[in-house]
Amino acid sequence: MEANSSAAANAPAAKACNFKFRGDGSEYFKIWIVNLLLSIITLGIYSPWAKVRNNRYLYSNLYLDNNNFRYLAEPIPILKSRIIAVLAFVAYTFISQQDPSAGLVLALALTLAIPFFVNKALAFNHRMSAYKNIQFRFKASYGEAFMVFYIWPLLGILSLGILYPMAILKMNQYLVKNSAYGTTAFNFDATYKDYGVLFLIMIGVGITIGLPLWGISLLFASLNFVAPVLMMALYFILFTYFYAEVTNLFYRSLSLGRHRFKAQLTLPGLARVFIINAVLTVLTLGLYLPAAKVRMTKYLCDNLCLQAHGSLDNFIAAENDSITALGDQFGEVFDFGV
């Protein structure tokens, strides 16, 4: 016991490797507005090029430990995937008009196919994302995706919300545990209790404060105009708190091998970002949206770090060796870029 305690005490402390987003709102606006105009002029044909330009800017300005990420996709595969999707929709529309019963069968088939296509799209997007020349991976089963997108949300509704925290947990487990950086899989160790407590806090505070406000507005007619404003403020605070805590829980539960993540979003800091973004987006009739995205991304990255246990460079070097030894066995013929 003493030997174990001594070893734990002598273990090197985790190194905090910070995330930083170095993008600029005005730069991103120029990319966004050009992408929007060209996509409209070309009736959407330019949209794959727009997506690639957009993601390459965002990825290249996202840094971890002073090294940036890369987006590797090319527009043509994305364009082919979207053409297939459009043709499928046109075929469905035509068949539905000619034979409604056949259209219903086709709609059911397309609905059942959604988990398959989501898996393929996630696999494509992961493989097109890289850090220090190592690509991310994603591989999930159809059954798991079907449960996450259809069964668990349905159970959340049928249980009157009791199983809704479980639905969120299962979704996060699906996204994380099927992902990998090179050959090392991500892990997610949050529990139903973790999410359930957050839901109970939000519901409890909402009822404790909301009911008295509603009762006061009924008793005093002069407060009829004040009560809705106070209720909106309350719901905004609850939403912001919930968003911050769910995000913190997600990253606190996320690990990559021995390395863990940590997020420290706060209610005041996040509320400030939400309010500024909302006000400026309304005042500019939506033109502030790109800068709002940059502001939100910067705030998240400023409050997010990777706690590296051991040398991050050695870990990445080992991943390179593993990938070289295995060869490129991860490529999939039927990946879909969307």
Concise synopsis of the structure shown:
This protein is α+β, with helices and mostly antiparallel strands and 338 residues long. The chain has helices at 2-10, 25-41, 47-60, 75-98, 100-127, 142-158, 164-177, 192-219, 226-252, 267-283, 289-302, 312-326, and strands at 15-21, 62-64, 67-71, 129-131, 134-138, 179-181, 184-188, 254-256, 259-263, 304-308. Strands 1-2-3-4-5-6-7-8-9-10 form a ten-stranded antiparallel β-barrel, surrounded by six helices.
Q: Would you mind describing this structure in some detail?
A:
- By secondary structure, this protein is an alpha+beta fold.
- It has twelve helices and ten strands.
- A ten-stranded antiparallel barrel has the order 1-2-3-4-5-6-7-8-9-10, surrounded by six helices.
- The chain starts with a helix and ends in a 12-residue tail after the last helix.
- The model is unreliable at 1-9 and 325-334 (pLDDT under 50).
- This is YjgN family protein.
- Keywords: Membrane, Transmembrane, Transmembrane helix.
- The chain crosses the membrane at residues 29-50, 71-95, 101-124, 145-167, 195-216, 223-244, 269-289.
* Mean pLDDT level: 88
Principal-axes shape call? globular
Rg, Cα atoms, Å:
24 Å
List low-pLDDT spans: 1-9, 325-334
In which range does the helix fraction lie?
55-70%
Which key features would you list for this structure?
single chain; about 350 residues; alpha+beta; ten-stranded antiparallel barrel; 10 strands; disordered N terminus; membrane; YjgN family protein; DUF898; transmembrane helix
